């Protein structure tokens, strides 16, 4: 075979191989002055996934506060009014004009380290366009879950998944079925614990400002993260960087 033809074919095959790769999820690196964490957004909740990804990509969350913190429960942020808020200013009402339709899934529960969408008391359980919370919660005994079923859940029974999760990892089981859970931290869960320890006022606002910034992993960063998780070396070579430079650094999931 002619050497030029062989090289052309090899070039085409390499190009197809590189461009065909698409990460399985969206990932967001979260930075705070109390630690960093990596968030994976669930594909089972595509409306929440795509909305949060878009806002993070646009820098919407950068410099916002965790404006509501309750230890052993959750830490909440995403109110754009918090960016330039005065000390002790009441927060929690800001956000886009739109709401996101509920995507509550029985298998996506409020275990420690998950992210849920905040909402008001609307009967359709639609979510805020930007406000969210990270679950801290606590670990329960089976007796504690029995009590929860009887009194707080009014006799409703927890699933085997819920019981096994809340007696080991912990979380906030009484929120299940009422709020959309749409992702989880893959590392840096101790960031939640650190934020949850800050002192708060009578409105649960931290007396010490805890700000956040978010970075949506690029296609290459996400691919390399998934490669490392599968025991493979990340692709960082010259040709990888060359071909990556020819396309958008971001990607779209179905």
TrEMBL record:
Q: Which UniProt keywords apply?
A: Isomerase, Rotamase, Signal
What is the catalytic activity of this protein?
Answer: [protein]-peptidylproline (omega=180) = [protein]-peptidylproline (omega=0)
Q: Does the keyword Signal apply?
A: yes
Q: Name one GO biological process term.
A: protein folding
* EC number(s) on file: 5.2.1.8
Chain ranges of the PPIase cyclophilin-type domain: 31-213
MF terms from GO for this chain are: peptidyl-prolyl cis-trans isomerase activity
Class of this enzyme: isomerase
**What protein family does this chain belong to?**
Belongs to the cyclophilin-type PPIase family.
Q: What does this protein do?
A: PPIases accelerate the folding of proteins. It catalyzes the cis-trans isomerization of proline imidic peptide bonds in oligopeptides.
Listed name of the protein: Peptidyl-prolyl cis-trans isomerase
Q: Which organism is it from?
A: Sphingobacterium hungaricum
């Amino acid at each position: 075979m002619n050497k030029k033809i062989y090289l052309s074919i090899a070039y085409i095959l390499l190009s197809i191989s590189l461009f065909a790769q698409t990460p399985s999820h969206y990932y967001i690196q979260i930075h705070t002055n109390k630690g960093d964490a990596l968030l994976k957004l669930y594909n089972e909740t595509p409306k929440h996934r795509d909305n949060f990804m878009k806002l993070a990509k646009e820098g919407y969350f950068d410099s916002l506060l965790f404006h509501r913190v309750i230890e052993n429960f959750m830490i909440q942020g995403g109110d754009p009014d918090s960016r330039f808020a005065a000390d002790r200013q009441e927060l929690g009402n800001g956000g886009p004009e739109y709401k996101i339709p509920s995507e509550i899934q029985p298998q996506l529960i409020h275990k420690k380290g998950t992210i849920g969408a905040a909402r008001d008391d609307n009967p359709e359980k639609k979510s805020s366009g930007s406000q969210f919370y990270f679950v801290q919660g606590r670990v329960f005994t089976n007796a504690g879950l029995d009590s929860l079923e009887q009194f707080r859940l009014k006799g409703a029974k927890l699933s085997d998944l819920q019981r096994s999760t809340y007696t080991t990892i912990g979380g906030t089981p009484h929120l299940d079925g009422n709020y959309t859970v749409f992702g989880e931290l893959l590392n840096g869960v101790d960031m939640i614990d650190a934020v949850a320890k800050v002192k708060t006022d009578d409105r649960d606002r931290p007396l010490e400002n805890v700000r956040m910034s978010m970075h949506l992993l690029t296609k290459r960063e996400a691919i390399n993260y998934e490669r490392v998780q599968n025991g493979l070396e990340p692709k960082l070579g010259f040709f990888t960087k060359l071909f990556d430079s020819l396309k958008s650094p971001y990607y779209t999931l179905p």
